[in-house]
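Crash report, auto-generated. Payload:
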Amino acid sequence: MTARSTTDSARDIPEATVARLPVYLRALLSLADRNIAVCSSEELAAAAGVNSAKLRKDLSYLGSYGTRGVGYDVDYLRYQISREIGGTQEWPVVIVGIGNLGQALANFSGFRSRGFRIVALLDADRRLEGKEVAGIPVRPFRELADIVTEHQVAIGVISVPAPAAQDVADAMVQAGISSILNFAPTVLSVPPGVDVRKVDLSIELQILAYHESRKAQTEADGVPSLDGTGAVAIDPDGVTA
Amino acid sequence: MTARSTTDSARDIPEATVARLPVYLRALLSLADRNIAVCSSEELAAAAGVNSAKLRKDLSYLGSYGTRGVGYDVDYLRYQISREIGGTQEWPVVIVGIGNLGQALANFSGFRSRGFRIVALLDADRRLEGKEVAGIPVRPFRELADIVTEHQVAIGVISVPAPAAQDVADAMVQAGISSILNFAPTVLSVPPGVDVRKVDLSIELQILAYHESRKAQTEADGVPSLDGTGAVAIDPDGVTA
DNA sequence: CTCGGTTTGTTCTCGATTGCACAAACTGCC
DNA sequence: GGCAGTTTGTGCAATCGAGAACAAACCGAG
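Recovered output after restart:
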């Protein structure tokens, strides 16, 4: 859309590739844990659950970090991917909304190990103030701006009920946050330049339900299931005219 | 059952469209709450955060449920989409792994309101047995097969630590579950015919971090930023105001 | 040094998806 | 009844992503 500066050294990595880089990173970590120093694209692809050609093409966007005839050095590649996706620096994060989900997120160990540090838990509910979750005290929501400024927070997580999500997002943007991970089932509207990613639990289930109902329907139509598992045993009685 | 019924024209809905149908459904619900009986594709698209042309094309895969010059009847369209994605029937669901995340999922009200009923919470930890979460007792993991058979469960949710996820998935498939929503940060291997969707919290943050570091880099390259919300060339999937 | 075996990086092709643009169809007014 | 205004449904072009195939590059043996 917008023309980039001519001295743009940042290669433009396709969005689909960006989404897979963390997966590769995790697969490499798993290999390193097993003391594997070098791996082929085939092995790494298997560990990551993707096609090996796709893996090689993805990695080629970062540069030529492999050795033909040999494969990839696990540690070296791990560093390169990590650097590319900003994993070599520590990202301060705030979580707003310390309900069930917010507490689960605060306790999730995968954040810290990947370079994210939760600098504050915020909630508008006065009754939560003073409570500690995962060793971090819950602070009042109104302190958001101060915290963002003080810790240079760029990433915010929203885990409040849907009706409050837009207000929280507005406050985050106002405070200077430019990337938001939204767990509330709402469409957030933010100014350009602010990234929003949405994680919607019920939508994922609904997508599964769609495929599930198609499976049931296909079987009811008399088409034999393609796989030999015979695992599907759904009663399609609920089909209404 | 014949394959030529007028209502089952839904043979080839693109995956990208399927992923958006639940979003449209929620947007329609929001409109209905505001007592809006009819809406144009433009309005609905705005509420769902997508392009109106895309919305119309998506809906056209389901059939011609709009009226030219008028728009879409909110209730009617809501029913049609809901029926298409299997929302008119109730889907029994089991959740395995009642840690922080599992408890948050059990308490999440969005499931029941969208046609999903949690029939059991399972955990291998003996200390959790007897505990109630969201009014549902936690039962031992070994009862999985019986529960799946008894309630005709087709959808399972995995919220156990990564090392246990594959074992749980195997047991689910063995028991007859054919759709899995996986929150564990692991690549699951399942037989063909079984659908797996993955929700990975730290990957989402890492994707945000990638874009964030590019923003910082672009700014450092001399591209002027419009105050805190400097525009960047990357097109977010977020919505513009 | 040369050669066979292996593996990467890249090219090519094809299918999926997006967004535009516009004809078809409907409502309300005169 | 006819017309002006509005909105849907869809053909089309352009872009993006996936996977196969292959030449280039590397290692080790002889």
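Post-recovery validation: Residues 40-42, 56-57, 59-60, 64, 66-72 of chain B lie near DNA strand D (CB under 10 Å from a C1').
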